[in-house]
Amino acid sequence: MTEVAAGVFVHNGVHEEASAANEDGIANIGFIVGNDAVAVIDPGGSFAEGRALRAAIRALTDRPIRYVILTHVHPDHIFGAAAFRDDHPDFIGHDRLPGALNQRGEYYMRRLRDALGDEANGTEVVPPTRLVADRLDLDLGGRRLTVQAHRPAHTDNDLTVYDNKTRTFWLGDLLFVDRIPVIDGSLVGWLNQLNELTSIPADRAVPGHGPVSVPWPAAAKPERRYLEAVARDTRAAIKSGIGIANAYRQVANSERGHWLLFDEYHPRNVTTAYKELEWE
Ligand SMILES: [Zn+2]
């Protein structure tokens, strides 16, 4: 764990696909410690990773783990939640998260078992027990966290967390650095959200993927450049009658070489963008 600011701890995910070797530890996850309580921000990608995170917390403090914030539906962020059940925290999620888990939870579980084998043991879908429709302030004792629910962007159930004490802005997957962004909500929505998010002053940001701490808002620049390129080139492809299956070949090629896992995710991003933009 890296302490990126006083009392703010982040574990750096690896830039790989989920596997037994990495226990689906591919996202940045962590926790924030107040005078009275601890808040986990993303419990990790599997029960095994969640248990390791819990052990890291207990090595530092015995304050109660009162909140487990689930930034969005993707398994690499939240499938470690079961490791915190015995702490009886509030599991906090966007008010659209239960619907997304109903739709995709079983599929994600199957895929995790395929990727991790026995390392997936103990992993369960844990639904949120406390929902955020707009914003929610959490008091950890001498430390206030602001949880904000967002309109569709990376997914349709993204939360961010702002630590007012250290001005640390935890963005989950609304911010990708180095690893290619995944569009699973709304491309246009994401670009709009970026305008709002980058106007919020912070001393540092924690991206969902990338280094554990980055300057804000400078670190959002490459992501915006990629998303703008996808939007611009996909609109052009639609206009010139190129079909959805082939569009990715001519969309945002200038971005290749700037991102890890580009070939794994870029074609899918273009397909998602195409479906959204062809209705404009
Ligand atoms: Zn995600």
* Number of discrete helical segments: 6
Shape: globular
Radius of gyration: 18 Å
Q: Termini separation (Å)?
A: 44 Å
**Which structural class matches the secondary elements?**
alpha/beta
Bound molecules: zinc ion
The biggest beta sheet reads: 7 strands, mixed
Mean pLDDT: 97
H/E order of the elements?
A: EEEEHEHEHEEEEEHEHH
Q: Which regions are unreliable across 5 or more consecutive residues at pLDDT < 50?
A: none
Helix content class: 25-40%
Provide key terms for this protein:
single chain; about 280 residues; alpha/beta; five-stranded mixed beta sheet; 6 helices; 12 strands; globular; binds zinc ion
Would you summarize the structure shown here?
The chain is an alpha/beta fold and 280 residues long.
